[in-house]
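Exercise 3.2. Students should predict the tertiary structure of the chain below and write it as structure tokens, then compare their answer with the key that follows.

Predict this chain's 3D structure.
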Amino acid sequence: MNIVEPILHQCRINAEQPAICAPGTPFDTITYAQLEYMINNVIKTVIPFGFEPGQIVGLLLQDTIFHIVVILALTRMGVVTVSCGEEPLSEEIGATALIIDSSEPVTGAKRIIRGNPDWVRGSASTAVDARPAIGDEVCRIFLTSGTSGVPKAVALSHQMLMGRNVQFDYAFGGHWPEQSRLYCDLRIASEPGFRYVLYMLMRGGMIMFYGEDHVRTVQSLDLFKVRSMVTSPRGLADHLKFYERTSIHSSLDHVVALGGGVATKLLRRVWARMSQNVFSDYGATEVGSVASADLRAIGETRGATGYVVPPASVEIMDDETGTSTAANTEGIVRLRTPYMATRYVGQPQASAHFFRDGWFYPGDYGYVTPHGVLVITGIQSA
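Answer key:
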């Protein structure tokens, strides 16, 4: 199944409900009816560009809502997208074109297409029948540097992305699945950022992003009764500073922090000013989510990432013997999930180093406690 189909289903049964919000930006807030309208019009606009199913198209789009709509439109057509930064896409990825909404000169792409938010305007009629996903067909590529600092491309299929989203129903406690509106403080270009977009839109919820400024963003959190937030530790610290220097009360019930550990001092300030329910989410673009926990349970243990989340598997390997170690014994961390990638796009040497024997080696040292908590103690030297 194409990942866009469940979203379009929500567009029809939740037409007037808000879908995406970035307060104060040009599109500000769009409903599900508007989302379908915009997807259809973008498809009509890009059809003359001659993109074929399976081709890879790079995206460098500044407007969050327009960025999401273009991704969904191209995905519905069977085109594979990869969102990038200012640096050029590597030749190994094999992108046929780059869509950019800036007038700045860009190098490294065979074909440059200037994206325009006006693409979303036009007739609301259906533009094209969705191209069904065939088996494990790739739909999205994510760029990740991991611990090496060298950009690598991870290709994920429709099936892999939908499979990873199942964990959200039980990884963060019983109240998390009840949340119908989420503030996402992550980049759309990142795997978790895009995965949270899919999770909310597939179930008819609203996903909100940082808007014009902090004031508009926080006001919209209260206006739309947004009770959950996903962010990085750095984003969490920035958000906390706003609450600490104002008299505005946080309305958040749950906060999920991923991409690194949360310092104990910061965590205590967050508990006092933002939310008592702060969860960790440890994983990697290559494998998805691997461990999670309420940080009240593990926050005092330095390097603790959370309890290993089913169906993920974690093994700690002895550096010298290459065998699995006992609980509480430090070694090389390796990870496995049913929805993991098995290689990097166009990088056989990096693939052979990080993917071995059906496992992904993220380059971390750590151990697993007898209670199933994964603790990261350091990283391997390059």
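Discussion points: The longest helix spans residues 32-46. The chain has ten helices and 21 strands.
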